[in-house]
From TrEMBL:
<keyword id="KW-0067">ATP-binding</keyword>
<keyword id="KW-0813">Transport</keyword>
<dbReference type="InterPro" id="IPR050388">
    <property type="entry name" value="ABC_Ni/Peptide_Import"/>
</dbReference>
<keyword id="KW-0472">Membrane</keyword>
<comment type="similarity">
    <text>Belongs to the ABC transporter superfamily. Drug exporter-2 (TC 3.A.1.117) family.</text>
</comment>
<keyword id="KW-1003">Cell membrane</keyword>
<dbReference type="GO" id="GO:0016887">
    <property type="term" value="F:ATP hydrolysis activity"/>
</dbReference>
<keyword id="KW-0378">Hydrolase</keyword>
<dbReference type="GO" id="GO:0055085">
    <property type="term" value="P:transmembrane transport"/>
</dbReference>
<dbReference type="GO" id="GO:0005886">
    <property type="term" value="C:plasma membrane"/>
</dbReference>
<dbReference type="InterPro" id="IPR003439">
    <property type="entry name" value="ABC_transporter-like_ATP-bd"/>
</dbReference>
<dbReference type="GO" id="GO:0015833">
    <property type="term" value="P:peptide transport"/>
</dbReference>
<dbReference type="InterPro" id="IPR013563">
    <property type="entry name" value="Oligopep_ABC_C"/>
</dbReference>
<dbReference type="GO" id="GO:0005524">
    <property type="term" value="F:ATP binding"/>
</dbReference>
<dbReference type="InterPro" id="IPR017871">
    <property type="entry name" value="ABC_transporter-like_CS"/>
</dbReference>
<feature type="domain" description="ABC transporter">
    <location>
        <begin position="13"/>
        <end position="259"/>
    </location>
</feature>
<keyword id="KW-0547">Nucleotide-binding</keyword>
C-alpha cells in the first residue's frame, strides 16, 4: 500500500496536556502526533518519558488520578475527548486496538483461544458463534499459528511466549482496526522471535492498511517497522521526522544521544551510555527545555524558555535552539 501525503490521518493528537493529581508538572506537555493509514509511527524515548501515558490517554484508559488539561485527540473523524464511555468501549478492541508487552495480562487463562477470539468478534459484530469461530480460525492462519484448528481448543498457558504474542496480535486485528497501538510488543521476547513478530506486524499492516503506533525504547525495532518517528523526552516531543531523517540527520541532542547509544554507532556501555544522568523528577523539572539539565550544549536561554517544535526540513521538526545543524556533520561531530 502506498502512502499519500494528502490522506487524512487516522489519528491526530494536538497539543495534548496531561497532569497527575499532586504532581507539579504535566506528564504530557503539548504532545502533537499524527498517524496515517498504512503507516507506522514509532514513539521512542527512555523509560518514564510518557510513552505509555500517551497510549492510555488515546485508549481512554488513563488512571483516575490523571487529568487531560487540554488538547485534542481525533480518531477516524471522532473527537475522542467528547465521546461517551460506551462509544469508547465499542471502539476499543474494534477500530482502536492495542497490544501489550506481556500477553498474559490480556489473555484470560480460563478460556480457550477459540472462545476468546470468537468472543472478541461477537462483542462488536452481529455474527453467529459459528461465523465468529471461522473468523478466529482465519486470523490464526494469518498470524501463522501452526495447527491452527487444534489451537482453537488450547489454553493460553499451553503456548510459548512468541505464540502468545501472535495470539495477542490476532486478537487485536480480528476486527480489522484502523489503528493498532503496540506498546513494547516484543520486549519480552528473545531476538529471533522478536524479528519474526516484527516481520509479521509489517506484513499484516501492509495487507490491511492498519495504521500502527509503535511504542518502543528500542531503536532496532524502529528501524525494522517504522516510517516515521517521534522522539519523546520527559513528556514532550523533542524531534519528529521520517526514519531516514531521524537516523541520518538527528538534530536534537537527545536524539543524537539515542543514536550514539546504538551498538556499532560508538556505544560503549549499551543503552544511553552517551547521555549521562536521568530524566528529572517532577519536582525538579526545568522550567525551560526539559532536557537542559542533561544537555552538553545547554545555554542560559535553554533553562529559561522552552524551545518550540519547529520545521527544519520536509516533515522534520525539532525543539532545540541549536537546530538546524549542518546535514554533513557526523554523529561524533554533532555530539
Ligand atoms: N499513576 C501514576 N501516578 C503518578 N505518576 C505516574 C503514574 N503513572 C505514571 N506516572 C509517571 O508518568 C511518567 C510517564 O510514565 P510512562 O509509563 O508513560 O513512561 P514510559 O515512557 O511509557 O516508560 P516505560 O517505558 O517504563 O513504560 C513517569 O514519570 C511516571 O512516573
Amino acid at each position: 500500500m502506498t502512502l499519500s501525503p494528502h490522506a487524512a490521518p487516522v489519528l491526530t493528537i494536538n497539543q495534548l496536556r496531561v497532569q497527575f493529581r499532586g504532581s507539579p508538572v504535566t506528564v504530557l506537555d503539548n504532545i502533537s502526533l499524527s498517524v496515517q493509514a498504512g503507516e507506522t509511527l514509532a514513539l521512542v524515548g527512555e523509560s518514564g518519558c510518557g510513552k505509555s501515558i500517551t497510549s492510555l490517554a488515546l485508549m481512554g484508559l488513563l488512571p483516575a488520578s490523571a487529568t487531560i488539561l487540554e488538547g485534542e485527540m481525533r480518531f477516524a473523524g471522532e473527537d475522542l475527548r467528547h465521546i461517551s464511555p460506551r462509544r469508547y468501549a465499542d471502539l476499543r478492541g474494534n477500530q482502536l486496538a492495542m497490544i501489550f508487552q506481556e500477553p498474559m495480562t490480556s489473555l484470560n487463562p480460563a478460556f480457550t483461544l477459540g472462545d476468546q477470539l470468537s468472543e472478541a468478534v461477537m462483542r462488536h459484530r452481529q455474527v453467529s458463534r459459528r461465523e465468529a469461530m471461522a473468523a478466529a480460525l482465519e486470523i490464526l492462519h494469518k498470524v501463522q499459528i501452526p495447527a491452527a484448528e487444534m489451537r482453537l481448543k488450547a489454553y493460553p498457558h499451553q503456548l510459548s511466549g512468541g505464540m502468545r504474542q501472535r495470539i495477542m496480535i490476532a486478537m487485536a486485528l480480528i476486527n480489522r482496526p484502523q489503528l493498532l497501538i503496540a506498546d513494547e510488543p516484543t520486549t519480552a521476547l528473545d531476538v529471533t522471535i522478536q524479528a519474526q513478530i516484527l516481520a509479521l506486524l509489517n506484513r499484516l499492516k501492509a495487507e490491511t492498511g492498519t495504521a500502527v503506533l509503535m511504542i518502543t525504547h528500542d531503536l532496532g525495532v524502529v528501524a525494522e517497522v517504522a516510517q516515521r518517528v517521534a522522539v519523546m523526552y520527559a513528556g514532550q516531543v523533542v524531534e519528529t521526522g521520517d526514519v531516514a531523517a531521524i537516523f541520518n540527520d538527528p538534530q536534537h541532542p537527545y536524539t543524537i544521544g539515542l543514536m550514539a547509544s546504538i551498538p556499532g554507532n560508538g556505544a560503549r556501555h549499551g543503552d544511553l551510555a552517551t547521555i549521562p544522568g536521568s530524566v528529572p523528577l517532577p519536582e525538579q523539572m526545568p522550567a525551560g527545555c526539559r532536557f537542559a539539565t542533561r544537555c552538553p550544549f545547554a545555554e542560559m536561554r535553554c533553562h529559561q524558555a522552552r524551545p518550540p517544535l519547529q520545521d527544519i526540513g520536509v516533515a522534520h521538526q525539532v525543539a532545540c535552539f541549536r537546530a538546524p545543524l549542518e546535514h554533513h556533520l557526523s554523529l561524533e561531530e554533532r555530539a
